Structures
1.
Amino acid sequence: MEKKSSKKGLIALVVVLALAVAALVIWQVNKPAAQKGGKEITVNIDHLNGDDTSYTISTDEEYLRGALEQENLIEGTESEYGLYVQTVDGETADESKQEWWGYSVNGEFAELGVDSQPVADGDVYDFVLNVGW
Amino acid sequence: MSAGKKSALSIREIAELSLICALMVAGKESLRLIPNVHPVTLLLLLAAAVYGVKALYPAFGFALLEIALYGAGLWNLMYLYVWPLAVLMALPLRQSRSRALWAAAAGLHGLCFGALCAIPYLFIGGWKMAVSWWISGIPYDVIHCVSNTVLTFVLLPPLRALLERLKARRSAN
């Protein structure tokens, strides 16, 4: 009985590991394509006090996080799904006031975090400090 | 095993389940720098194995404590179903002593974590948003899966034996 249960367990374990591999394949096939080589992007930052700033960044980084960290523009904490951005251009979102940083890519609200957002030449990123969940 | 059948909690069970809940928060927060490596699923499966359906108490307790720590957000809703689901998934396995089966269950929960958390996005932005959100998090789900599997494979059997021994000693007194 114990042996049978153990065999079932091993089969379940193999199935789960196979599913994990399948999930990685799905991610590899569907992940947004990153562009290699030099790129120039524009990053606009809408501060809460109205002091808006704009940066033109030349970068070889493939994802937004790397490009922004290269210029020391963002800080945050590692979360289950990558960097949770708390500070942009020196301004930290005050969570007790329900403040949070969001961003758009070429005018469209971003669906990906900065770790997964691929950078393409000519992209424009608008960061806004929002208030209210 | 009787604890799982009685619906009322004894004072001792309240203390023990609260301790498990506290360990879940402490374990998650102390390993915060390593994304998705934590003993939360292990402890929930352990609670389900030993206390049965009463493991839902630490599952909800953990979600509420995390909400108290980090404030409001969409993830609040996700936590209120994703952790109790781990308990519900484990309940049919209670009789099993196969460490591989328990490890597989823990791994499956970690692997499905992102897909389960993507459900609210179905209603916010449709299936496209939900699927793209799930896919972008797959590498983190795989880390979650592997860490849950290893932690549960190694630690669940000895921790379960320890808790059951303590319970048996308590019943004898």
2.
Amino acid sequence: MKTLAIFGDSFASVNAMRSTSVSTAWPNQLDTSRWDVSNYAEPATSFYWTYRRFLKYHERYDQVVCIVTRPGRITLRDEPYVLSVPFSISGIRQAEWLLKQTKCRLNTLQTRQVTAMRDYLMYAQDYEYEVDANSQLLEHLKRVRPDAIFIPMSSALPNLRPPEHVMMLDFVRLIVASVRPELIEMLGNPRVSQDGWIDRDELEPIQCHLTPEVNTLVAGCVESALTTGIWAPQLPDYVQHSLAWEDYYRETSMFGALLPKFK
Amino acid sequence: MRNEPYVLGIPFSVSGYPQAQWLLEQTTQPLSDLQRSQVEIMRDYILNVQDYEYEVDANSQLLEHLKRVRPDAIFIPNCPVLPNLCPPDHVMMMDFIRIIIASFKPEMLKEWWPGGKTGGWIEKKELEPIQCHLTPEVNALVARCVESALTTGIWAPQLPNTIAHSMAWEDYYESESIFEKFLKKSK
């Protein structure tokens, strides 16, 4: 048995906020007779947060899988966790949501920090700087660990981009194509779906933003990549699902009514 | 802010908290409402959120990229921040400022040099002879060092401790501090 480390964001984390007894998240579907898995992924975290963890821990493991998140996120590395996950801002809408949510009220400093991050993202952040910086941080990780499997979340980084690199949002697209194909066009509409997200509250079957069936597919693709050393899965156009769309997603938007409805 | 109009004749930039405060209060070119908001947002971000280690790591890797793109380029650090372009292997621009201080105000080295409160800067308003934060005499020295580096392909100048200057300290710097009143006192 080999040791395997998984790094990344919510596309690889076992959601800390959900109380499911049987996890169908793809990291938990890897072959336990082959892999002793340690999962370092956490939701909403920045690539820099992943970069630091990767450099700190990768040497302990025989193989490494890393989900490379979208640039522009901010994780306050030295602050206490919020809602059981690292204190992070993944975008303006999530910042607004964090300010308004009542599950874990922010203290005065946290409110000031989230407000500062939201305003910075809106008015000051240089997204191209974030893209270039994250691209070069990724290049560094590739040099440090040439055998690691890097999987992009989105198509943002030029050195880890489709069509050469299948991304996690390709698996999200596969869910829509399989369960609600009439919504496929909405995924490409930036007013409705940022980067290709399904902007819906996720129900319990969804883990790592994916249905159990698609999590199984991802696990198989990752197993294959760990064997060949190459992340180049051939994805089907359709995956049979056991449940209906309504069993996976609520009709409400993930972060509230801040964007047009995804119907 | 790469896509914004220049401010005070230069790209719209915030180099730190005191400069942001200065930019908000200066009257040479009053900021528009949008610019004022942007400066306040950058100031608040620097104060409450900015992960300096991210900036260091990101900038180090961006520098590595430039080194690969242009291996013959001469890279000179401003200050000792980036681990891949740092003294003693890499003489920095602050080393030339040190020569100015050592030449005129050696008693200020402890206060102004890295580790001191100004981090190597001469915290005084610069008069006309100063260009690129350096006296004409030290600018001439830098030019010679760069000429040498361009010939050898290596930036490794041997610097003197002091250099003779033709004028007095008061001809180069005003007595007033640049950003002193905007610095947060840690008392």
